[in-house]
């Protein structure tokens, strides 16, 4: 997917001065799904480079991606800049920790108990042309607020190696390194947790 036509990225080495981006969030809709799948594909292919081998990146598509249950549950949002979708992410009160519609082995629609279990942070993706603008942090903060309002005191996620630094900076603590089976290979990920009351 190319950048929206309103955006012209500067050439490498060229410094620009601009106003901060105004990032707005709204619930994801069914009409957004084709674009969200494209953003996710591009993010996996681009942002995992340097963390995973080319073969692992290709295999990642078998376990990562869009879980439309989040959209149906109303807990998935898109981030927009000037009306263009530049990122997405959500939270869940269901037991599934990660994976898209196609990764059946990871799915568990059981409702979580807020008194004893952490809510899930799910499917965080930023378009590769819009990284380091605060988009993922804005979505993450929104999801944590929603989970807290739903009665959860902790949140948990399965982070990619490229996302680990963001999650650590947001207060998430790694609790387990997991080698996720994917198309005959394994993809390393981090299960991370955060205490919302800390």
Would you kindly provide a written description of the structure presented here, covering whatever features stand out?
The structure is a single chain. The protein has 198 residues and is of the alpha+beta class. The protein has a single domain, classed as Aminopeptidase (3-Layer(aba) Sandwich). 25% of the residues lie in helices and 28% in strands. It has 5 helices and 7 strands; from the N terminus they run βαααβββαβαββ. It has a 7-stranded mixed β-sheet. A hairpin with a 2-residue loop joins strand 6 and strand 7. The longest helix has 15 residues. The protein is globular.
Which key phrases capture this entry?
alpha+beta; disordered N terminus; 5 helices; 7-stranded mixed beta sheet; 198 residues; 25% helix
Briefly summarize what is shown.
The protein is an alpha+beta fold. The protein has one domain (23-195): Gcn5-related N-acetyltransferase (GNAT) (Aminopeptidase), CATH 3.40.630. The protein is built from five helices and seven strands, in the order E-H-H-H-E-E-E-H-E-H-E-E.
**What is the CA-based Rg, rounded?**
16 Å
CA-based shape: globular
**Biggest β-sheet description:** 7 strands, mixed
Would you count the extended β strands for me?
A: 7
CATH class, please? Alpha Beta
* Oligomer category: single chain
Distance between the termini: 39 Å
What is the helix/strand order?
A: EHHHEEEHEHEE
Mean residue pLDDT: 90
Helicity, as a percent range: 10-25%
């Amino acid at each position: 997917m190319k950048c929206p036509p309103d955006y012209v990225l500067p050439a490498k080495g060229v410094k620009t001065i601009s106003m901060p981006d105004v990032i707005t969030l709204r619930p994801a809709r069914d009409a957004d799904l084709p674009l969200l799948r494209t953003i996710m594909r591009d993010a996996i292919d681009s942002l995992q480079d340097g963390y995973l081998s080319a073969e692992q990146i290709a295999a990642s598509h078998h376990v990562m991606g869009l879980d439309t249950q989040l959209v149906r549950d109303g807990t998935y949002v898109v981030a927009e800049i000037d009306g263009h979708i530049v990122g997405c992410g959500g939270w869940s009160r269901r037991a599934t920790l990660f994976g898209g519609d196609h990764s059946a082995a990871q799915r568990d629609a059981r409702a979580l108990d807020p008194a004893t279990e952490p809510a899930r942070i799910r499917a965080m993706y930023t378009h590769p042309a819009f990284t380091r603008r605060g988009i993922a942090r804005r979505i993450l903060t929104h999801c944590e607020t929603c989970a807290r309002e739903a009665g959860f005191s902790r949140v948990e996620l399965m982070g990619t190696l490229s996302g680990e630094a963001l999650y650590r900076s947001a207060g998430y603590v790694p609790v387990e390194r997991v080698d996720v089976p994917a198309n005959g290979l394994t993809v390393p990920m981090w299960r991370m947790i955060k205490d919302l009351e800390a």
